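ok so I'm stuck.
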Amino acid sequence: MSEEFEINAEKREVVGKGSSRRLRRLEDKVPGIIYGGKKKNPQNITLMHKDLLKATENEAFFSHILTLNLEGTQEQVVVKDMQRHPAKPKILHVDFQRVSKDVAIHIHVPLHFVNEDTCVGVKKQGGAISHSMTEVEISCLPGDLPEYIEVDMLKVEIDQIVHLSDLVLPKGVELIALTHGEDHDLPVVSVHTPKKAAEETEEVDAAEVPTVDSKDNGEESDED
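replied:
not stuck anymore, here's the structure
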């Protein structure tokens, strides 16, 4: 993990919907909570909206161990949930989970698709790439947390599907879905024949089917 993230927070004593609305409207702050880890009690917090929003512009923010500076103490955390405004660039609430170096965490990490331009199924076979997933949920120790998981498309041929079980995972990383059985080995990405090309092929095939004349088929004509 090459990136390092530090973010400042303050303890929040007053909670509730009314308090949260005032924080957002009057102080431009985001209410949040820290939970989990070896500390039993959750901690309500507030963060400056501009600082949090800027941090979220980096994709890696969501798949890294973050250092949360909380009034003279530091917490190692990961983002577990973030609520955003449906129409405005506003963060409404954020949940952080404490992490310990010896306890595995569950977290979503992005997929990075490489060599799509040189993919065999695209460059040589005229296919098109279709993504079924953009991120996956993994389990690993904090020290093994990858920034992303790479999906190499170089040798993927047309009509071929890359499933979860085909992904090359870093050491110590496990896909949560695959722990639930083979039925959860879902498609990640595929190379398919473009729709227009498929339709043209069907039209050609249809045109090549010979028509059968009723007279040649041994049927009687209505003519005398």
